Structure formats: C-alpha cells, structure tokens
C-alpha cells in the first residue's frame, strides 16, 4: 500500500512551522505521530501536496509538571503520558485514557495533539482531558490563543483550529483537593479497539460533610463529539456519594447521550452502556478520593 | 525529490537517499533487503512490521524513512549476536511458538522491548506488551510461555 507523493518539510521550531503552515495553506497537512494521517493517505482519503512534520520540534515533545499542573506538548507520545508518574498520581483518568489508546506500538507513535485534532467521536484523549478542564494553546505567526477543549471539537474531524494554526500544547490545572477521577473504555477487545462507549468522570467532595461539590462526566462514541453530561453533573452536585446516586447519575448521563445505531452496536445498547460505565467510573473516582 | 538520511540499523550506519513517501518498512525490505520485517495490514493494526526505534517498538509501516533519520533501529535480523540466536528466539523455537512465522519477528521485538524495561513481567504485562501484534495462527499461549521462560531464566 503506497503513500501518495508529497513534499516533506521538517521545521526545527514552532515559529518556522507556523510560517510554513500559513504559506502552504490548504495543500498541506501537519504530521505529528502519523498513525491516523498515514492510514488515511494509504486509503487515498487524503493526498496532501506537502507534509509539515512537527515531530522533531523539541518544545512540542515536552511534558512539564509543576505544582500539580501539567503542560503537555502537542507532540508528546501517548506512551510517554501513560508512563508519567505525575500523570498517574494527579490525573488518573488521563493515565487510563493514554494507556488504552491503540496498542503499545501505536502509543509509541501517536501524539496527544494528533488525537485531539483528528477529532474522532470515539477518541481516547478527549473525555479524560475534558473532565480536567483542559485548555489548548493554539499558535500561529500572528500570535497565540487559548481555547477550552470543550469548545475545540466541533464535529467529527472538525475543530476550532484555523488553517494557519498549530496546536502547541494542552494545559491542565490540578483538580481541587479531595477529587477523584477515572476513565473507562468499552470495546469488544482489549487493544487496537475503537470504543463502543467511553466515559470519564471526576468527583470533588467537601471533606467536612462528604457532599459532592464538583462533578464532571464526559461520554465518547455516543454523539458527533465527546459530550459533557450537564444532567449527570446536576444529579451529583450537593448530594452524598452512594451507589444509588451513581446509578441516578448514570441514568442522567444516558439521557444526555445521542448514540446512533451502527455496525458496532445499537443505540439502545450504547445508551445502556453509558448508564453502566458512568456508574462504574463514578464509583472508581469516589474510591480514589477515599484512598487519598 | 529524494532526501538524504543517516540512520543506524542493527548497529550499522547507513547514509541513504530516499523518496519522502517511502515508509521505513519499505526501506528495510525493498532497499536494504532486510525482509525479516514483514508487511501485513500496512495500517498499524497487525504489528508484523514491528521494529525497535530508539528503544521503543513501533509499526514501521507508519513511519517514514525520512522520519527515521538519526534514529537507532533494530530489526529481527539484529537480534542474533556472535553467541548465536537471542534467548527469545531460542525459546520460541524450543516451545513451538512459531507456526506460520509471519508474526514472529514483530512478537520477538515487542517482547524484547518489554524485557529490556521490565525483566520480570507478569503474564498480564506480557499479554499487554504483545497486544499490538496479531498471530493469525492464534498461537498466543506458546508465545506468552516463551517470553515468560526467558524472563524466568528457564
């Protein structure tokens, strides 16, 4: 299976990359890990005249943890995120998302930035990053701007990224004290799987009375984009954690989901799985708060 | 237009001119005749093209030859030393972990990166490490046992 012909560019800095991107415009694709791009090019779905590889730009490949907050360069590999102790301890749902993406071989190539810009509804990075209120740094020759991830993904394959922009980094603030989080992916096999449904959840408790003061539930594969469940959040806030509460939040999340019938599963089954995975993700998040 | 690349493959340095759209898998097989690296799906799903690049196992069908410039590559041909076959290769043969053989080089290289990092893996860790490598003969049990045997010095 041959790749269509293209011209290959390998800028050394973000500035140089931004300049090339705006000069080459629509005839160009940005190459990060290549695990989606090359597949689409081999299938002849894409045939860009130019590839601008940002894979060797050092500043984009850095994962910095300071005071609990994280700055993840867009070209950091999924494997590096999965192996990071800073991620594992403070952002366990992100650790789980990074560890479930593709296969070990794919995780050694695929980048967080590529996963977000590809904007697939079943992607493993958006739900965990959304429960942590991730912000994205978008750079162009004109400057930079910051966009919340919840506003970034517009539709399958469509994002807020402008044609002259490069996704440079993902920023995460440390969750409030007494928070727990988890990510669960459901597929028919353990590796190289596109999620039937995936759910990330975050819970924050008031330590004095145990009441939920913060909650976020994000569902993937059950809508054109990953969906933040407002109803689940409403059901959880101000209540005391219990199995019954988590089940009710699961019901609420299921009512917010918009699954479709397709070859992977029926809409009815996916909705039922949103209910169950939300319950389990919340129980796991609660368990983690208690173990702190 | 071809691009010049320099890379190390199995300890040997190469300086080559390659087309930008040539994958690392094709460079190895077609240009350098290192045909131990197999091509199966060519979409990153089967793992038969696995090579080790700077210590990490990757699908060489999803890496451009130009992206491998400056990198250190190990293919299955690089596992054998003057002392003979790699312990994993010996165990695979001894245990009958090779049926048709198409997945074998990828399995060996994924297993090698696992044991280099984690010399005493659990069975779950072994199965996870080879989860990107498909064996269509479904001979997983003997592959897992062979990796376990090497890790336990048997």
Written overview of the protein:
The complex is a heterodimer of chains A (292) and B (154). Chain A is α+β, with helices and mostly antiparallel strands and 292 residues long. Chain A has three domains: 7-53, Uridine Diphospho-n-acetylenolpyruvylglucosamine Reductase, domain 2 (2-Layer Sandwich), CATH 3.30.43; 58-172, Uridine Diphospho-n-acetylenolpyruvylglucosamine Reductase, domain 3 (2-Layer Sandwich); 179-290, CO dehydrogenase flavoprotein, C-terminal domain (Enolase-like, domain 1). Helix content of chain A is 36%, strand content 25%. Chain A has helices at residues 14-24, 37-42, 78-83, 85-90, 92-100, 104-107, 112-118, 126-131, 149-152, 230-236, 243-256, 267-290, and strands at 7-9, 28-31, 50-53, 63-66, 69-73, 135-140, 143-148, 153-155, 158-159, 166-172, 179-186, 197-205, 212-220, 227-228. A five-stranded antiparallel β-sheet of chain A has the order 4-5-10-6-7. In chain A, α10 runs antiparallel to α11 (243-256) and α11 runs antiparallel to α12 (267-290). Chain A is globular, with a radius of gyration of 19 Å. Chain B is of the alpha+beta class and 154 residues long. Chain B starts with a strand and ends with a helix. In chain B, β3 (50-53) and β4 form a beta hairpin. Chain B has helices spanning 24-31, 87-95, 104-117, 123-129, 140-151; strands at 3-9, 12-18, 50-53, 56-59, 72-74. In chain B, strands 2-1-5-3-4 form a five-stranded mixed β-sheet, covered by helices on one side. The radius of gyration of chain B is 15 Å and the shape is globular. The model of chain B has no long low-confidence stretch (mean pLDDT 97). Chain B has five helices and five strands. Chain B has two domains: 3-76, Ubiquitin-like (UB roll); 87-151, DNA polymerase, domain 1 (Orthogonal Bundle), CATH 1.10.150.120. The A-B interface holds A 1-8, 10, 34-35, 38-39, 42-43, 51, 53, 55, 79, 102-106, 108-109, 190-192 and B 1, 3, 19-23, 42-45, 47, 50, 53, 56-59, 61-64, 66-67, 110, 128-129, 131-133.
């Amino acid at each position: 299976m041959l790749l269509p012909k293209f011209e290959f560019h390998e800028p050394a800095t973000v500035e140089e990359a931004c300049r090339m991107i705006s000069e080459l415009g629509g005839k160009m694709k940005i190459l990060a890990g290549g695990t989606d791009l090359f597949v689409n090019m081999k299938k002849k779905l894409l045939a860009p005249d130019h590839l601008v590889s940002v894979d060797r730009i050092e500043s984009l490949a850095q994962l910095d943890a300071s005071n609990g907050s994280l700055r993840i360069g867009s070209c950091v590999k999924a494997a590096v995120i999965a192996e990071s102790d800073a991620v594992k301890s403070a952002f366990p749902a992100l650790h789980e998302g990074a560890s479930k993406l593709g296969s070990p071989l794919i995780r050694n190539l695929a980048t967080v930035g590529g996963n977000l810009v590809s904007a697939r509804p079943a992607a493993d990075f958006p739900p965990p990053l959304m429960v942590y209120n991730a912000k994205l740094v978008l750079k162009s020759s004109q400057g930079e701007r910051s966009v919340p991830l919840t506003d970034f993904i517009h539709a399958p394959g469509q994002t807020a990224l402008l044609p002259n922009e490069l996704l440079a980094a993902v920023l995460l603030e440390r969750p409030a004290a007494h928070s727990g989080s988890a990510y669960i992916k459901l597929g028919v096999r353990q590796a190289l799987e596109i999620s039937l449904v995936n759910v990330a959840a975050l819970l924050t408790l008031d330590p004095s009375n145990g009441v939920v003061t913060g909650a976020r539930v994000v569902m993937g594969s059950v809508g054109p984009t990953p969906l933040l469940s407002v109803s689940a959040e409403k059901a959880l806030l101000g209540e005391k954690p219990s199995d019954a509460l988590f089940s009710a939040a699961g019901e609420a999340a299921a009512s917010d989901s918009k699954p479709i019938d397709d070859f992977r599963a029926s809409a009815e089954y996916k909705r039922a799985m949103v209910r169950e995975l939300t319950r389990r993700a919340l129980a796991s998040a609660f368990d983690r708060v208690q173990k702190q | 237009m071809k691009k010049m690349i320099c890379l190390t493959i199995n300890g040997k340095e190469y300086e080559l001119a390659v087309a930008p759209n040539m994958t690392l898998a094709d460079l190895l097989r077609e240009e350098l005749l290192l045909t131990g690296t197999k091509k199966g799906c060519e979409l990153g799903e089967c793992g038969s093209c696995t090579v080790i690049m700077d210590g990490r196992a990757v699908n060489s069908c999803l890496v451009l030859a130009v992206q491998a410039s400056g990198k250190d590559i190990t293919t299955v041909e690089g596992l054998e030393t003057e002392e003979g076959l790699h312990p994993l290769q010996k165990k695979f043969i001894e245990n009958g972990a090779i049926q048709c053989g198409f997945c074998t080089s990828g399995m060996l290289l994924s297993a090698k990166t696992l044991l280099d990092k984690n010399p005493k893996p659990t069975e779950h860790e072994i199965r996870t490490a080879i989860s990107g490598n498909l064996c269509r003969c479904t001979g997983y049990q003997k592959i897992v046992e062979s990796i376990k045997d090497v890790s336990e010095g048997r």
